[in-house]
Amino acid sequence: MRTLDIIKNSFKFPLKNYKYFILVCIIYFIIEISDEYVMHIPIKNISILLIFSKAIIDFIMMGICLHYVLHCINIEEGHHPIKIKSAFKEGISDYIIEIYYILLSFVLTAIGALFTGFYSNLWNVLNYSATLKLDTQADNIITIIGNVPVNILNNFYTSLFFTMIIFSVAFILMFSFCTLIKVSYIETEDLKSALNPLNIYPIVKKIGFKRYIKFFFVITLILTCIMVIISLLNEHTFMGSIISCIIEGFIIFFFTYSFTLLYHDTN
Question: Alpha-carbon distance 213 to 25, whole Å?
Answer without folding.
Answer: 30
